Target: S100 calcium binding protein P
Amino acid sequence: MSLSTAMASLMATFDRYAAVEGKKDTLTKLELKNLVENEMPCLIQKAKNSDGLEKLMKDLDRNKDSEVTIEEFLTFVCSLTCVCYKYK
Ligand SMILES: [Ca+2]
Model:
């Protein structure tokens, strides 16, 4: 897979989940939960534990509007990629 395919996939995945409820270009807590559970099964333990999800949402939602923007989401994916890289 090329890097541009991976980028397109990041954008399409965000859009698909963000469109479910509320604003079409941000993730609510439920949308974030569904995205993490379906697309990042390695984090499923964290998402299943509701305290974990609260914390994840709080960490991602930098501007504290209870919605996760594409910028906040991509920052999260990049940080996670850095962690995975270090432990590969
Ligand atoms: Ca939304």
